[in-house]
Amino acid sequence: MTLKNFRTSLGAMACALACAMAFNAHAALFEDDDARKAILELRQRLDASASELRKSGDETAQLRRSLLELSSQIDQLRSELARMRGQDEQFGRELAEVQRMQKDLSQGVNDRLSRFEPSKVSVDGREFVADPAEKQEFDAALAVLRKGEFAPAQTAFTNFLKRYPQSGYKAPALFWLGNAQYALRNYRDALVNFRALVAADPEHVRAPEAVLAVANCQVELKDIKGAQKTLADLIKAYPQSEAASVAKERLIRLK
Known about the structure:
Elements: H1 3-114, E1 119-123, E2 126-130, H2 132-146, H3 150-163, H4 170-183, H5 187-200, H6 207-220, H7 224-237, H8 242-254
């Protein structure tokens, strides 16, 4: 091989080597760009993940704050509920006290009104309506008579009949007034009141006794004929009464 050819070959080899090196350098450069791209993509993914994590952390923190606020609100509601329950209990106690006071007041008013309102009473087997004061006055007069205080009893029954002329107590008041007067030997007035009873209420349970008392007054007044007639009338008018049995015996004695 000539020197010229050698040189030509050497130049060709150098050129080929240069090309090869240039190609290898280009390939290496290409590989570095891919690596950088991959790293950039990885960094972008990491940044995105970090951003998501930060965002998730913010959301978690916000959720925790919301839960804390909700827990605080629940505690406040519990406290308010307990306070309201306490108020309800207090209100219930106050209401019960007011209702008790109202009941006591109502009972007191009713008791006071009952002292003035008429009520049913029963005397000598008869039931009628009487004012409380009326009943009280009659009972008081009768109590005086039963103690044997005939003069005060006469005054009490006389005043009662003047104050209550249409009272359901009229017949018994006349009867006991007559008895008080008889005990005081006020026979004429007693006779008048016994007759007044029979005339006003001949069906009264005290009527037969009143007729018998009229006869007794007549005997005391020395009106024997009048007494005999009264006793006969008693036996005829009230044949089944106990007073009629007594009248028969007295009529025999007066003959």
